[in-house]
Amino acid sequence: MQVGIKFSTAIHVVLAACFFKGEKVTSEFIAGSINTNPVIVRRLLGTLKAAGLVNIVAGVGGVSLAKEPKDITLLQIFNAVNNKEKLFKIHSDSPKACPLGSKIEGLLTTPLLKAQEALEDSLRSITLQDLLDELINL
């Protein structure tokens, strides 16, 4: 299982808005930091803005955080760029006559929900400020 690169790219975008505060932080500027197309950054910025994490001023204004870094968690960023659905999908086309296939969904639902909750708890405990503090020490 792999969480797509949209999540790490979104973290990069939000970090750039804060780390380069005082500079003109545009989608082109951020795209250069990520080494990606500015269109990808603009799409992510739209999503992050809709989630209330960034402010965007068109033209010369650029991107800034909508909240203090200490008030933005990785879970907020994760939820902004990922659908609010179950992280794990369980196949449901097993034959009902099979003694395993007929029970697989019931068997896996609870442990996979617990794993998702553990991930969410971990992401909730890490703020953008935590990452900025760590970045300074790298």
Let me know the largest β-sheet.
Answer: 2 strands, antiparallel
Instruction: Give the uncertain stretches in residue-range form.
Output: none
Across the major sheet, the strand order is: 1-2
Percent helix: 40-55%
Envelope shape: elongated
Q: What is the C-alpha radius of gyration, as a whole number of Å?
A: 19 Å
Distance between the termini: 29 Å
Order of helices and strands: HHHEEHHH
Protein name: Rrf2 family transcriptional regulator
Pfam family, one: Rrf2
InterPro entries: Tscrpt_reg_Rrf2 (IPR000944), WH-like_DNA-bd_sf (IPR036388), WH_DNA-bd_sf (IPR036390)
GO molecular function: DNA-binding transcription factor activity
List strands and helices in order, with pairings.
Blueprint: H1 5-19, H2 27-34, H3 38-50, E1 54-57, E2 62-65, H4 74-81, H5 104-124, H6 128-137
Antiparallel strand pairs: 1-2
Helix pairs in contact: 1-2, 1-3, 1-4, 2-3, 4-5
